[in-house]
Design a protein that fits this description.
By secondary structure, the chain is of the alpha/beta class. The chain has 21 helices and 17 strands. The structure holds pyridoxal-5'-phosphate. The site of pyridoxal-5'-phosphate has 16 residues, from α8 and β10.
Length: 487
């Protein structure tokens, strides 16, 4: 109820001559309590006074409706304080990602390594050499902080960084192909969750799309036939979130690079996730590396910072120095550039790649990919026991094998054998509603828990559960919630 309605009711009550029967503390009396003094310390006098007034107005209104309205100064103060705390709690909160998708775009993708966290903290609390060259005492380039690392990790001549991979593709196309034609295979005209559709980005970049081949098969001659005087570049896009299987053909980077070279055109490859090391060395499926694409002859390669790489949101572009120079001269680069915090996080993350042997212990993303079913099984048992004790009367709770995904469009067909907990309603009827209510109750926990519903069960994959104590400690709230919802 708004304060205005509460006031209106209060005056109504006064005119009916019953106001004197409700004894409420004065605003001043409430403000003298300990809780109110704490609230004033945290939220300021005017916000606290407003919250106290609102609470007292509600008490009067309740009393006028015939409900109990009485309120002590202490209770009014602590309720007003709780209200202020709630309003001040951040909108972006931590959650438990039990979806089974490690790099979940909606849940913020990669978690940063300790080294990256420390670098961000340092960069935000003091002036830095963001664009300052200490040797020469002159203005420097912000991308210089990662240029050397990216060159040595990918074998490319040069590198630059922007806001995300979508921005990287936009900058490359706008710089090299504005008003001209870009040749792409029909099988690679991707849409990545939300609003990244390659044809739309092309249009925004001012390019015309020349689609070649068919959905399942594109040959070298298809590219060759499409090249004309209007062609600005050839583009290859990693089909990151789907796979075309069966009777298929696509042209490898090396052959495309040769063709592009014969026509004096650059070959641009959007690797999507892109990875700096061969994941096969850790027993994962092979994902094309950036160094491989450069070695095969791509003139520019774009990829994301917060997918498999495990860093902050960023778009990385590596390749020929003359082309990178053109990108840096495009005014759009300024609009798309990285801020100092993410640049610090990126530099620290890339630094970890210089010692690949220790990456699994230092890079959270890789550590999560590599958790084995044997490591996860006891965790799933603990989660199962915790959940069974609070919702076991209403749900069958079982620890089960399941499959996690890398996510964010990387290796869409590769799954990581995992362990999870499956919850299935005991009642035969209204199962869909029961599952929905349970999922909603989990989302209302102090640290919300996000799972996935599949085959009439709620699945909680424990691969990304990093703080089981905290998870288990909040489960009793679920029993209270559940009892309320069932009633
Ligand atoms: C994920 C992806 C993008 C978009 O990258 P963002 O970093 O999310 O902007 C572009 N192209 C491909 C192939 C991708 O997989």
């Amino acid at each position: 109820m708004s304060v205005a309605t509460a006031r209106a009711r209060r005056s109504g009550a006064a005119s009916a001559g019953v106001a004197g029967a409700l004894r409420l503390p004065s605003v001043d009396a409430v403000l003298r309590t300990g809780a109110a003094r704490t609230a004033i310390e945290r939220f300021g006098r005017s916000a606290t006074t407003g919250a106290v007034r609102e609470r007292l107005d509600e008490a009067r209104a309740a009393w006028q409706r015939g409900e109990a309205g009485a309120l002590s100064a202490e209770v009014a103060a602590s309720e007003a304080q709780a209200r202020l705390e709630l309003a001040a709690s951040p909108s972006q909160r931590r959650v438990f990602n039990l979806t089974g998708t490690v790099l979940h775009t909606n849940l913020g993708r990669a978690l940063l390594a300790e080294a990256a966290l420390a670098a961000v903290q340092a960069a935000m609390s003091a002036p830095t050499t963001l664009e300052f060259d200490l040797d020469r005492g002159q203005r420097g380039e912000r991308d210089d902080h990662v240029r050397g690392l990216l060159r040595s990790l990918t074998g490319a001549e040069d590198a630059c960084v922007v806001n995300n991979n979508a921005a990287a593709v936009l900058l490359v196309l706008n710089t090299l192909a504005k008003g001209r034609q870009v040749v792409v295979s029909r099988g690679e005209l991707i849409e990545i969750g939300g609003a990244f559709r390659l044809p739309d980005i092309m249009a925004r970049a001012g390019c015309r799309l020349a689609e070649v081949g068919t959905t399942n098969r594109t040959h070298l001659r298809d590219y060759g036939e499409a090249i004309s005087a209007r062609t600005a570049l050839l583009m290859k896009v990693h089909t990151s979130n789907y796979a075309i299987v069966g009777f298929t053909a696509s042209v490898p980077t090396r052959q495309l690079a040769t063709l592009a070279g014969e026509h004096g055109l650059p070959l641009v490859e959007d690797l999507g996730s892109g990875t700096l090391i061969d994941l096969a060395q850790f027993g994962l499926a092979h994902e094309p590396t950036v160094a491989e694409a450069i070695e095969a002859g791509a003139d520019l390669v774009t990829f994301s910072g917060d997918k498999i790489l495990g860093g902050p949101q960023a778009g990385l572009i590596v390749g020929r120095a003359d082309l990178i120079r053109k990108l840096n001269r495009n005014p759009l680069k300024r609009a798309l550039r990285l801020d100092k915090l993410r640049l610090a996080a990126l530099e620290a993350t890339l630094g970890l790649y210089l010692d690949p042997d220790r990456l699994p212990e230092r890079l959270p993303t890789l550590r999560l990919f590599l958790r084995s079913p044997d490591e996860l099984a006891p965790l799933a048992e603990r989660v199962k026991a915790g959940l069974a004790s609070v919702v076991g009367d209403r749900f069958e709770v079982a620890a089960v094998p399941c499959d996690s995904q890398i996510g964010s469009g990387a290796l869409p067909l590769a799954s990581l054998p995992s362990r999870g907990v499956a919850l299935k309603p005991r009642a035969r009827r209204g199962q869909g509603r029961a599952l929905g209510a349970l999922a909603a109750a989990l989302r209302r926990l102090p640290v919300p828990v996000i799972g996935r519903t599949e085959d009439g069960r709620l699945m909680l994959d424990v691969r990304c559960l990093d703080d089981p104590e905290r998870f288990l400690a909040q489960l009793p709230e679920l029993a209270r919630e559940g009892a309320g919802a069932a009633a």
